[in-house]
Structure formats: C-alpha cells, structure tokens
C-alpha cells in the first residue's frame, strides 16, 4: 500500500512558476524572430523539474539545508534570468534614444558623462566602483542573515526580492534599453556632445559587445569590467534594478528594525546608487525610476505575498506516492 505525501511549494517557487509562464508566452509569440526560443523553453522545463525534485526532497525530510537549497536555487536562477532578458528583447525596438533625450531636456547635459569628468580621481573612482560591486554581496549576505536570524521574516524578505526582480525583468523585456555605456558607444561621442540621440532600432541585436573604457583603472574598476564582460548585456537600464533592489533591502531592514545594519550599510548603499551613474551603467532617470519603483514594489509585495502564500496554496500543492510499505509499518 502506498504512503501519500503532499508536496508544498514555497511562495518564491510559485511566483517563479508564474514568471516562467509569462515569459514563455512572450517567447512563443516571438518564436519566428528569437533564434534560441526552443532552447529558452527547454531550460524552463528543466528548471521546473529541479524545483519539483527539491520540493519532493523537502517533503521527505525538511532539513534546513534542503530548504536553503530551494531558496538558493531560486536565487541562482536570477543570474540566468537577467542576461536572458536580452535574448528575448533583442528583437524588440531599443528605446535608449528616449531616455537620453529626456535626460538632455531635463538636465541640459548627460550626467553619466559629466560625473566622471568632474571627479576623475582614482580614489573616488575606486570608491564608486566598489559601491557598484557591493550590490551582489548585499543581496546574498542580507538573504543569509535573515534565513538564519529570522526564518519567518526571511520568507517575506526573499519573496519581495524575487517579486521585484521579476517585475523589473518583465519591464526590461517589453521596454528594451541598454544604458549610456552601450548607447553612447553605439552613436559616438560627437553626437552625444551635440545632443543628437538617434533611434537605433534593432542595432543591439547584432552589437552586444561592451568596449572597455581605458580612462579609469584600479582594482575594483577592473573587477567590475571583468564581471561585465562575462555577464553584462545591452539590456536592463530602465529602471535601475541596482538602485531598486538595494533600496528595497534597505526598506525591509528598516521595517524589521535592523538599525545597526542600516547604519553601516547606508554609506555603501549611497556609493552603490552614485556608482550606477558614474560608471555609465544607467541614466539619472533610471536611478529616479529605481527609487520610485522600489517603494511601489515594496508596498505591492505585501499583498502579493499574502496572495501567493494563501490563495494559491491549493493550486500549487499536490500529492505523490513516494514509497511502498506494508500497512502495519505505516500504522506504526
């Protein structure tokens, strides 16, 4: 006789399933134009299987390291979802010309270029590159901190980050922008200086390489460039997820009254926000949109988390027979 066991998915896994569904619909719609469409869809099937297997293992024995593995896998997938936005949106028109034009109209210049020219000192450059690079340790360390210190709050904390990332990624897919470091490189410095920002159309479909700026140097500068060469794509400029996600982390820690952590984190957070413009990864308008979206996503996540934790509980839960045993042993 079989012993039944229910597999229950985490709220973060549920929203990942939803993101997979929504992006799959977009990919299927773009199949004639996206050359890697079937590969992207195949990867999604693999990810779903892995999530089911991890949930199954957790149903057998809910050890902390199995649960941590489930969250770690969802977090690791973000490293895949980000560059994938370019694989999908490269066949959609680029909108950097709008952002650069708005920036020029509002500020009368391009702050991303002017910032580095005003402060070219190596020590200043290194500080901001370090701030920009701190984005990844900030996410990982904050997640691990709450996982071990406050497991119940961690569920909401992690879900809020996933929810926010997925909304950002959907925006990046539907509103493709590359950022100053790619767009200015494409149109040339002369047109930037004269305030001419042409519509590049599908230019980045064939030109995705980021050229190295030799004006700056230093340890953190070199590390950022190396990581960009490996994982950066001409995508995800508006709004800035660097600013948005780091701001959400600050809000979540403030709401959880982790004031000591906020005290030493705030200078790093400030450097991170400034660094996004300094290294020309974002326009100032991206930073403003990142701050506004952070507040919107934080308050939205409260309701979305409740919805995925409660309303979707029965939809994503199912029962499997995982072992065969005599009836007596089951009763014992």
Record keyword descriptors for this entry:
2 strands, 70% helix, two-stranded antiparallel ribbon, 332 residues, 15 helices, mainly alpha
Q: Can you walk through the features of this model?
A:
- The chain is mainly alpha-helical.
- The protein has one domain (2-331).
- The chain has 15 helices and two strands.
- It has helices spanning 11-29, 37-60, 64-89, 96-107, 111-118, 122-133, 135-149, 151-174, 180-187, 189-193, 219-231, 241-255, 259-278, 284-311, 327-331; strands spanning 2-7, 318-324.
- Helix 3 (64-89) runs parallel beside helix 8 (151-174).
- The longest helix has 28 residues, at 284-311.
What's the SSE blueprint?
Blueprint: E1 2-7, H1 11-29, H2 37-60, H3 64-89, H4 96-107, H5 111-118, H6 122-133, H7 135-149, H8 151-174, H9 180-187, H10 189-193, H11 219-231, H12 241-255, H13 259-278, H14 284-311, E2 318-324, H15 327-331
Antiparallel strand pairs: 1-2
Helix pairs in contact: 1-2, 1-3, 1-8, 2-3, 3-8, 6-11, 6-13, 7-8, 7-12, 8-12, 8-14, 12-13, 12-14
Number of helices: 15
The main sheet comes to: 2 strands, antiparallel
Beta-strand residue percentage: under 5%
What's the overall average pLDDT, rounded? 89
Order of helices and strands: EHHHHHHHHHHHHHHEH
Assign a percent range to the helix content. Answer: over 70%
Poorly predicted runs are 315-332
Shape: globular
Instruction: For the largest sheet, list the strands in their spatial order.
Output: 1-2
Distance between the termini: 14 Å
Strands, count: 2
- Rg, rounded, reads 22 Å
Tally of separate domains: 1
Class derived from helix and strand content: mainly alpha
Query: What quaternary form is this?
Result: single chain
């Amino acid at each position: 006789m079989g012993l039944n066991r229910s597999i229950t998915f985490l709220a973060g896994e549920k929203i990942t399933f939803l993101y997979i569904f929504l992006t799959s619909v977009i990919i299927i719609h773009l199949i004639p134009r996206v050359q890697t469409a079937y590969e992207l869809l195949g990867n999604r099937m693999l990810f779903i299987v892995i999530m089911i297997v991890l949930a199954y293992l957790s149903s057998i024995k809910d050890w902390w390291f199995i649960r941590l593995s489930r969250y770690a896998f969802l977090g690791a997938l973000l490293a895949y979802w980000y560059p994938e936005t370019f694989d999908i949106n490269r066949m959609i028109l680029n909108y950097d010309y709008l952002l650069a034009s708005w920036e020029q109209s509002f500020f009368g210049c391009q702050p991303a270029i002017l910032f580095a020219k005003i402060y070219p000192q190596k020590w200043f450059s290194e500080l901001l590159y370090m701030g920009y690079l701190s984005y990844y340790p900030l996410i990982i360390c904050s997640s691990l901190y709450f996982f071990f210190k406050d497991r119940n709050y961690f569920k909401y904390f992690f879900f809020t980050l996933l929810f926010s990332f997925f909304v950002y990624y959907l925006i990046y897919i539907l509103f493709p922008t590359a950022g100053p470091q790619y767009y200015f490189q494409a149109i040339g410095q002369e047109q930037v200086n004269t305030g001419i920002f042409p519509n590049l159309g599908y230019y980045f479909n064939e030109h995705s390489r980021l050229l190295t700026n030799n004006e700056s140097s230093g340890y953190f500068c070199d590390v950022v460039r190396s990581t960009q060469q490996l994982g950066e794509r001409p995508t995800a400029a508006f709004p800035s997820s660097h600013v948005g996600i780091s701001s959400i982390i600050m809000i979540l820690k403030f709401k959880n009254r982790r004031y000591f952590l906020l005290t030493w984190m705030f200078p790093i957070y400030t450097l991170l926000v400034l660094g996004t413009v300094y290294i020309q990864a974002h326009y100032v308008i991206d930073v403003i949109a990142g701050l506004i979206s952070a507040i919107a996503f934080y308050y939205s996540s409260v309701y979305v988390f409740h919805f995925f934790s409660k309303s979707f509980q029965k939809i994503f839960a199912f029962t499997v027979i995982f072992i065969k045993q005599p009836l007596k042993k089951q009763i014992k």
